[in-house]
Design a protein that fits this description.
The complex is a heterodimer of chains A (283) and B (308). Chain A is mainly α and 283 residues long. Chain A is built from eleven helices and no strands. The chains are: A mainly alpha (283), B alpha/beta (308).
C-alpha cells in the first residue's frame, strides 16, 4: 500500500481551520456536554427557585410598598427586582463555564495533546486566538440561552405572585447582556489560567479562589483598610453582578469604569497567557 | 531537508543538547541513534519548534518550522505515543488535525486504513495499548502526506509485524524522495532501516556517516593464538600496534587486517594455531562509540560490555 495520493495535499493552516479543529475536538469530549448541560440546568433552576422564594416572601409580607422603610427590603418592591432575580445563578455559571475555559487549555497539557495541536499549528498565538473565539461564542450562546429559558420558566411563577417580569425592561436586558458579558469574562479568565498554569486542578482552584475566596478576603480587610473596599468593586464577581443586577448589587463605579474593569480582567490574563505560551516549551 | 546548526539546549545547569550540527538529506533514511537520555527527543522537539534552542538554530526545508504555513504537509512528526486526549477517538483526533489544514475527510480514512486502525476508529484512545497509540501517532504523522517525516522511537511497543511495517514505510517514503529521520536507541533496528546515521551521546554528535562507513571506520580486530605468541607480541608491539593479552597464548590485535598479521608471523617464523578476524557488528561499533556517553548505566550493560 502507498501513502501517495493523486493530488498533492496543500494543507495551508488558517485561523478558520484551527477554529474548526477546536470545535471538532471540543464537541467530541463528553466533559463539554456535561458542563454545558450543568450550566443551563443549574442557572434555570436557581432562577426559577429564587423567583418562587422572592415571590412567596413578598406574598407573606403583604403590601410591598410598606416595606420601603425596612432595611434592605425596599429594593424588593422595585419592578426590576423580579428580573434581577433571574441573575441569581450568575456566579455559578461564571464558575462552571470558567471551568470549561480552564479545561479547554489545561487539557492540552495534561493529556499531552498540546504536542499534536502545536505541530499542526506551530503559530502558538493562532491557537490561543482560536480558543478565545471559541470560548467567547460558546459561553456567550450558552448564557443567552440559559437566561432566555430562565425567563420562560420564571415568567409564570412571577405572574403567580403578581411580580413584573418584562422581557423589554431594562433590568431584564441587563441580566441578559451584562450577565452574558460577565460569564464570557469568567470563561476567558479560566482559559488564561489554563494556559498559564497548564494544570486543570490548579486552574480550577485559582478560578474558584478569584470568584469565591478573594471577595471574602478583600471584604475582611476592607473593613479595616479603606482602599480595599474600592478594590472589591473591581473583583470579577462584583463587576459581573453590579453590571447585570445593579439594584441588588449597587456600586459606586461609573458604567465605563465597570466595563474597563471587565476589559482588564479579560485582556491582562490572556496577554500574560499569550506571552508565556509563545515563550515556554511545549511538553 | 533538515539542517541543525550548533543546536544547544540547556535546562538550568544541565546541557541536554550541546552544539549539535547535522544535516538530514532527502531520499534516504537517516537514523538518529543514541542511548536513552542522549538528547534525541529534545533535538527532535527543537526541529519542530516545540522546544526553543538555547542557542543555534534548526531549519526544515530552509525555514524555521514555527513559521511554516503548511505545517502538516511539510513535516509529519511522531514524538511520543499517546499525545492525544484520552477521551478522544482516533477518528475525532485525526479529523481535528486534518481540519487545521483543511484536508479532506477522505484522507483521515486513508491513514486509518494505512495504519490498521479502521476497526478501532470509534474507540477511545485512553484504552489503547502502547502499540496502538504508536500506530495512531504514525497515522497523525502521515496525515498530511508530508515531505519530511520525523519519527521518535517509532517501533516502541510494536509487535514484530508492526516493526517490519514501520521499516518498510520509512524505506518507501525515502524512495519517494522524502526526508526521513528516525530515532532509536537500538543499533540493530537502525542497521536494517537507515542509510545514514547520526549518533548522539550526552548531547553531542559522536558520528555522522553513511551506515556502511560505520563498520569500515572501526579498526579491524583479530584474535591470534600461538605457542610462540611472545615473539609476535614483540614484533607487533614494536610497530606501535595495539594488543590486548587474553591468555598466555592468545592476544587480541586491533588495527591491521588479519592478513598482515599472518604475514608478520610468517616473516618471523611463528606458527599460528589461530588467526580469527572478529566480526564487528554495528552494535559493537555503537557500543564502543557511546560507551562513555551513556547517561544511565546499568550493571547488566556494563557486564555485557566487559564480556565482549
Amino acid at each position: 500500500m502507498t501513502t501517495q495520493i493523486q493530488t498533492p495535499l496543500r494543507g495551508k493552516v488558517t485561523l478558520l481551520g484551527v477554529l474548526r479543529s477546536e470545535v471538532i475536538r471540543m464537541f467530541a469530549l463528553k466533559s463539554t456536554g456535561i458542563l454545558i448541560a450543568l450550566a443551563v440546568v443549574l442557572y434555570v433552576a436557581i432562577s426559577a427557585g429564587a423567583t418562587w422564594a422572592v415571590g412567596s416572601l413578598l406574598e407573606n409580607m403583604g403590601d410591598p410598598s410598606q416595606m420601603q422603610g425596612m432595611e434592605g427590603m425596599g429594593v424588593m418592591s422595585d419592578p426590576g427586582f423580579a428580573s434581577e432575580t433571574l441573575g441569581s445563578g450568575l456566579v455559578f455559571n461564571q464558575l462552571i463555564l470558567g471551568v470549561l475555559g480552564v479545561l479547554l487549555f489545561s487539557g492540552e497539557f495534561t493529556t499531552g495533546s498540546a504536542v499534536s495541536t502545536f505541530l499542526a499549528s506551530p503559530q502558538r498565538l493562532r491557537v490561543l486566538t482560536a480558543k478565545t473565539i471559541l470560548t467567547v461564542v460558546l459561553t456567550g450562546v450558552i448564557q443567552v440561552i440559559s437566561t432566555l429559558i430562565a425567563f420562560i420558566v420564571s415568567k409564570p411563577i412571577a405572574e403567580n405572585y403578581n411580580m413584573t417580569l418584562e422581557f423589554v425592561s431594562s433590568s431584564f436586558q441587563s441580566v441578559l447582556w451584562y450577565g452574558t458579558l460577565a460569564v464570557i469574562m469568567a470563561a476567558l479568565i479560566g482559559l488564561a489560567l489554563g494556559v498559564l498554569l497548564r494544570s486543570s486542578a490548579g486552574g480550577i482552584t485559582v478560578l474558584a479562589g478569584v470568584f469565591f475566596v478573594l471577595p471574602i478576603i478583600i471584604s475582611i480587610f476592607g473593613s479595616y483598610v479603606d482602599w480595599m473596599s474600592n478594590v472589591s468593586a473591581f473583583l470579577p464577581d462584583q463587576l459581573g453582578m453590579s453590571l447585570a443586577t445593579p439594584l441588588s448589587v449597587p456600586t459606586d463605579l461609573e458604567l465605563w469604569q465597570q466595563l474597563l474593569g471587565v476589559a482588564g480582567w479579560i485582556v491582562l490574563p490572556l496577554t500574560a497567557g499569550g506571552i508565556l505560551l509563545a515563550k515556554r516549551d511545549i511538553k | 531537508m533538515i539542517q541543525a546548526q550548533q543546536l544547544t539546549k540547556t535546562y538550568g545547569a544541565k546541557t541536554v543538547v550541546d552544539q549539535v550540527s547535522f544535516t538530514v538529506n532527502p531520499g534516504q533514511v537517516t537514523g538518529f541513534l543514541g542511548p536513552n537520555g542522549a538528547g534525541k527527543s529534545t533535538t527532535m522537539r527543537m526541529i519542530v519548534g516545540l522546544a526553543t534552542p538555547t542557542s543555534g538554530q534548526v531549519l526544515v526545508n530552509g525555514r524555521d518550522f514555527r513559521k511554516s504555513q503548511h505545517p502538516i504537509t511539510e513535516v509529519g512528526t511522531l514524538l511520543e505515543a499517546k499525545s492525544v486526549h484520552k477521551s478522544l477517538t482516533p477518528s475525532a483526533h485525526l479529523r481535528s488535525i486534518a481540519a487545521t489544514a483543511g484536508l479532506p475527510k477522505s484522507r483521515v480514512a486513508e491513514v486509518l486504513e494505512l495504519t490498521g486502525l479502521t476497526g478501532v476508529r470509534r474507540k477511545k484512545v485512553g484504552g489503547f495499548s502502547l502499540g496502538m497509540g504508536q500506530r495512531l501517532g504514525i497515522a497523525t504523522a502521515l496525515l498530511g502526506d508530508p515531505q519530511v517525516l520525523i519519527l521518535d522511537e517509532p517501533v516502541n511497543g510494536l509487535d514484530p509485524e508492526g516493526v517490519a511495517w514501520v521499516r518498510q514505510l520509512a524505506r518507501q517514503q525515502a524512495a519517494l524522495g522524502k526526508t526521513v529521520l528516525i530515532s532509536s536507541h537500538l543499533m540493530s533496528e537502525m542497521a536494517q532501516t537507515a542509510d545514514h546515521l547520526v549518533v548522539i551521546g550526552r548531547g553531542r554528535v559522536m558520528a555522522d556517516a553513511p551506515i556502511s562507513e560505520f563498520i569500515d571506520n572501526g579498526l579491524a580486530q583479530t584474535i591470534v593464538k600461538s605457542s610462540e605468541i611472545e615473539v609476535l607480541i614483540n614484533v607487533l608491539g614494536s610497530q606501535g600496534i595495539q594488543l590486548r593479552r587474553i591468555d598466555e597464548r592468545t592476544v587480541e590485535v586491533t588495527g591491521p587486517e588479519s592478513e598482515i598479521i599472518g604475514r608478520r608471523a610468517l616473516e618471523n617464523g611463528v606458527v599460528l594455531s589461530e588467526l580469527r578476524p572478529l566480526q564487528r557488528t554495528l552494535e559493537d561499533a555503537y557500543m564502543e562509540l557511546t560507551r562513555d556517553a551513556v547517561e544511565y548505566h546499568s550493571n547488566i550493560v556494563a557486564e555485557n560490555n566487559g564480556g565482549k
